[in-house]
Amino acid sequence: MSAAETKLVTLTVDGQTLEAAAGEMLLPVLRRAGRRIPTLCHDERLTPYGGCRLCVVARRDGRGGLVPACSTPVQRGMVLETEGEEVREARRGQLLLLTLDHRMDCPVCERHGDCRLQDLLYEYGLPDRRYPFERRRRPRDERSAVIVRDPEKCVVCGKCVRLCDEVQGVAAIGMMGRGLDLHVATAADRPLDCEFCGQCVNACPVSALTARPYSPEVPVWLREKDSTTCSYCSCGCQVALESFRGTRQRVSAEVSRRPNHGKLCVKGWLGWDVGASPERLTEPLLRRHDRLEAVSWDEALDTVATALRVARSEGPPVVGIGSSRLSCEDAYVMQRFLRGAVGTPHVDVGPVGGVDALVEGMGTVTGTPRSTATLEEMAEADLVLVLRGDPTRTHPLVKTELVQGVRQRGQQLVLAHALSGGLERHAAMHLLLEPASEPALLHGLAARLLARQAELLRSLPGFAEWSASVEAYTPEVVRSATGIPPRRLHELADRLLGARRVVMVVVTGLGIPGDEAATTRAAATLMALLETEGERGGGVLVLGEKSNVQGVLDAGLHPDLLPGHRRADRPGARREVEGGWTTLLPGADGWGADRSFREAAEGGVGVLYLAGQDPVITWPRGYQAKAALGRAGFVVVQDTFLTQTARLADAVLPVTILGERSGTLVGADGVRRPLRPVLTPPAELPTDRELFIELARRLGSDLPPEERMREELESLVDFRPRRGGSRRFERVPPPLRRPAWSGILLDASPQLFHSGSVTNRSAALEALSPSEAVRIAPADAARLGVGNGQMVRVSSGPREVLLRVRLDRTVRPGTIVSLWNRGGGSAAALMVDHGQPTAVEVRRSG
Amino acid sequence: MIGSLPLETLDPALRAALEAEIREGGGGPERLVSLLHLVQETLGHVPEDVQELLADRLGLSPVQVGGVVSYFPYFSSLPRGRFHLRVCSGTTCFVRSSGPLLELLRFLLRPDGRGLSADGLFSLERVRCLGACALAPALMVNGRVHGRLTGEGLRGLIEGVRAEAGDTGLLRLPEGPRE
């Protein structure tokens, strides 16, 4: 409801006159007016429920009686009393009924001091147990590896059940029975099998739900609470960690804080143990006699500095590839070190989902490598078109926003992708496309809308060429490329035209087939077409794969982009940076990761410097990582673990992980958020930026002090979210005939429990999704003659990996699902070009 | 046909009937209760695999279907005997000694944890009130009320049913007022 439509009415509360919007529930109105209204079952993220009856207030306007504030709408002329004996007596009555069937373990309860029921009993007094009642015995359910349920503590507020359904869209638990027998249970009382987002545990007002990894051993008043930004994906969730002497006691999120409003996913909730992995590196290593040996920091840094100095003066060049997990500050110092101190233009972030979509996609159409919609705009849109992937697997917070959009706000959700993830249950339209055919679908929609919109756009740059090229995408051509019949294409076009606010979401992630940049350009262009009519708003939201894709691009960790998105090939932009640095920049011909690796494989790289990258196991085969590492003059790997790549390096420099340092991350929504050192490293370790600063010193090309470089970063980069103003149209390539498709499609895109790199080091996540390496639909398995637990050979051309089978009903026949990096069997070894769909053959082994 | 289907196996005819109902009447969550009626009336209970099938077709989760089944006493997710006995424990029946009658039935039928007798002939359920207070103490056998029960009468009722089921497979129950 917009402001113009809401009607203000007056009501009287405890003798005071208030104004409120008619139709709004009483509870938020009363709380805004400073009234303390107790609740157990209310949650602002959920639709009103009225279950616990603790929020009752008395009506004194002739309508009489007690009404629940949470589910009673404001009406003109209401007269209410929020305190007083009648109200207090009613609340005491409710508390009496709740305590009759509650196991009062308070002194030894892990929620002692942090329990909403206990708070209320302090406030209202422990009621006399005036009814004879035998407390019902119900056993604790300890079958889940993560969540323990204690039904004897449950107050049946239903928050867990409603969050699981309305917000998470899973409904793994429900209310069973009625009356006194009402209880929370799973279907057929099976062990809990869900997404393990932990929202039920964090919302539980009592201790009916607890987390096994975080069962607090010490009471709340002894715990320290710290908050930081989750660094798994690019959603930017704010997380609160409670700890006691270095042990984590609880991980939660605050309902009042953006962007996640108390929501977390399994990674943000449980994935905080990676830093404590026994495989953590704590000492630098150097290669001697073909073995990596632990050495002193002094020796390691001198050796690396010498290699850099030799390469700098005698060539072949130094190339540096960082990671989209670096903080903005680390990324800035890294590119400053490489461009300024080492003097090489070859700086890149590596092949990570979202970089091309932002730089080649948004950058081309709008002139700025940034999304044009935020998460909040997506939540408020009338129609959301999600392209390429399912955020359930890659960006769980986005998934919950979409579920809430559909369930609570009547949003239309349209999914267009080749690989599903579960969100289709909530979609108004689900277009299951041929792999990599998203651009063809979008061009087809543009061609369909062109006739209506052409007049207004004719003057925009590139329009004539673009419109001529896009007209080739007739409904029949789109059908042959995507598999989507004209009827559904037209239905989607009509839905787009009928919606006032449209947001298109481009999901990225290594292993999702298709050209993310082409899809983003097509989406942004289609958006420009839609925006020309009426007051339609919206934009394109690119979901970068890792936590700081946007931030490292802003900081200049890209061969074509200097800090602040300044083009490396524009003299004016170069002068702005050089002026601040008092250094001349190297040439504008920097290599990206693919070119760097090709050159290295040919012996054309002096020092290959990798910070937070594991190309051997996590990059597609096409990068020829092993050949590049073998032929590069000197290989430096800066990482937290002895990765497969580190094993082949000449020098390995251990660093802290994100949760252990300070800095900032920029989320997919363009908002910059702080990182705080909430975890303690197992040994004294440097951060990435400290290493670069120290290496520059040893090279004799001192970088400015850290504080000074932070000021540089702030002056060169404007982190405030903003819109690209321009719209440029680019000719689209002519339609391809559908590629001959045979075999089985490899789905190696990220999974909810594992994204393929850091998550592999989390014991908690590992416990939820153990090492089965390939999931196959039962029908396909029967056809192939393989069963659960058997080994199969999965091959694509000459490449082959050995994987263990797990049958899975949720896998679409014709597709097999495997992580691109999973312990021994890495599906990445089968992918040559992660933009292209990978067809595989599956055979029984032995 | 109560009790005539193997337990927990989805009859193809029932499956076809459900699919046809969903095709014709639409597949939204609002269809759930009428489809549960169809299953309950056909099988005598709503097995868990049928609940899962309905959840899948109606866009619900299995636990949400289970919640509805468990809410209405009319539906049961557990199999019932060929004769489902509902013993009233409402106020009037309670005062008129329905408790000892229930104990007697437990003695006679030896129901398992699910309320089912070993021969599958009877299932036993204690209900709140049948609304037949004038006939208290009362019990309902497959939808037919039997009132003013005594221990002796109850024994006769059960033995009569057993004998007839054993002898002929044809079942006649002593007449009582219709539900």
Biggest interface found: A-B, 15 and 15 residues
Strand fraction of chain B:
5-15%
Q: By helix and strand content of chain B, what is the structural category?
A: alpha+beta
Largest sheet of chain B: 4 strands, mixed
Average pLDDT of chain A works out at 91
User: C-alpha Rg of chain A, in Å?
Assistant: 29 Å
Considering DSSP H and I runs of 4 or more, what fraction of the residues of chain B is helical? 40-55%
Q: Please trace the helix and strand order of chain B, writing H or E for each element.
A: HHHHEHHEEEH
What separation lies between the terminal Cα atoms of chain B?
Answer: 20 Å
Gross geometry of chain A:
globular
What portion of residues of chain A is helical?
Answer: 25-40%
What is the count of DSSP helices of chain B, taking H or I runs of 4+ residues?
A: 7
How large is the radius of gyration of chain B? Answer: 18 Å
Structural class of chain A: alpha/beta
Structural shape of chain B: elongated
Strand segment tally of chain A: 34
Beta fraction of the residues of chain A?
A: 15-25%
Q: How many separate helices of chain A?
A: 26
Arrangement of strands in the largest sheet of chain B: 2-1-3-4
- List the strand order in the largest sheet of chain A: 14-13-26-25-24-15-16
